[in-house]
Amino acid sequence: MRPIGVDDLAGRLGRWSAGRGSLYLLLAARLRELVDEGLLPAGTLLPPDRALAAALAVGRTTVVAAYDVLRQEGRLTRRRGSGTWVSAGGAAAARAETANPMFVNLLEPEDGVLQFACAGPASPPPRLVAAYQRAMARLPADDLGYHPLGHPRLRAALAARYRALGVPTTPDQVLVTTGGQQALALVVRALLRPGDEVLVEAPTYPGVLDLLREAAAVVRAERDLTAAPVGRPALVYAMPSFRNPTGTSMSALERQRLVRVAGGVPLLFDEVLSDLDFDAGPPRPPEAAAITVASLSKVVWGGLRVGWVRADAALIARLARFKAVHDLGGAVLDQLAAAELVADYADVRAERVAALRAQHDHLCARLRRDLPEWEFAPAAGGQTLWVRLPGVDAASYAQVALRHGVAVLPGGSLDPTGGSGDRLRLPFSAAVEVVDAAVDRMVAAWRRFSAGTTASPVVPSLVV
Known about the structure:
Blueprint: E1 2-3, H1 6-13, H2 23-36, E2 44-46, H3 49-56, H4 60-72, E3 76-79, E4 83-86, H5 101-107, E5 114-116, H6 126-138, H7 152-164, E6 174-177, H8 179-191, E7 197-201, H9 206-214, E8 218-222, E9 235-238, H10 252-262, E10 267-270, E11 291-295, E12 307-310, H11 313-327, H12 332-343, H13 345-370, E13 384-388, H14 394-403, E14 406-410, E15 423-427, H15 432-450
Parallel strand pairs: 1-2, 5-14, 7-8, 7-9, 9-10, 10-11
Antiparallel strand pairs: 2-4, 3-4, 6-12, 11-12, 13-15, 14-15
């Protein structure tokens, strides 16, 4: 039998309790889906009743009843002293999937639950529409449309922007990707082999952790990369500006020290959030010695799936071959629109930062007023607050919050050291009215959670 960890199973369950009806029936229904789809294969040993109940913030009888429903259906086998496992005839072939709550929440259908587990612009800005209109006029009449390296116009615009920041760059050092996530995936594929060690910050962006697990890499996490012995990993990954989720940044001296102590180990700097600086000062120049990944998803809109990698020309050519196998290149119209936005980037950035600063201040004010027990430091940029729930398991609270109609991201899923269990990542990237609705639901969940009851309330019908 292959055991599944309680946190892994809780992640796979997703928004299991957001529907109506008895909790044990909702839990049984979601477990049934996981078994029938092969995501809990035959022979999987499920967590003990008490452990799963604690992780889901429900009573033990809820888990016992859900397990018993599936036992009667033949999907589970339960034996005193041996535990509970998926029956041989009750599951399809196993398939690998992410259990990361951030991705699971994106994959779940719209169900009235406010999405407070993911961060990014909530809607496309008017500038994007105007950029597409200008891009339409630039569509070439004699272009086949396949550009695995990226459209030449956009690559030239990005190279020019790096040069303006003081980093000498030519177009052959830029690869355009389908968002920053694909950029990270391509670099991971090119540089890592199963068993390679990767040094990351703790906590860190959960999307890269899933990529590293998929690559069968060994993750070593440190609280402070600049103070930790680098050793000889195959790769060092860092977010030097407004790190997701903590919002902290490395100084210029810390970046330079990390480059020095790396001693030739490849550095992968994720600069997706680097332009979201509340001081509205000049953009921080990226480190020329590092492989840089960035995108327009946080400054413009997540639906504009345009990201890029800046590296030496040889690595860019190799990454382009990997990308060509999967998609032959990104959509030309999207890239031409992105080139228009890059040409007008100072104004695009200023508008986004102004909106984020106002939303940040509003969220901080609501938390101080309505949830004074929660501890956090105001952010200097980025798009998330790193909040501490004193003496509380944040994952259990997140389960209660879900039953009150708001999805939040517990810190344990972002920390490969096993720490940050008392933390929540809260985005301030949504509109003020959405922030208000989310805080109202978090307050109600906190009162229920603090009172020690796990009864299931009626989820509000408001959909924002």
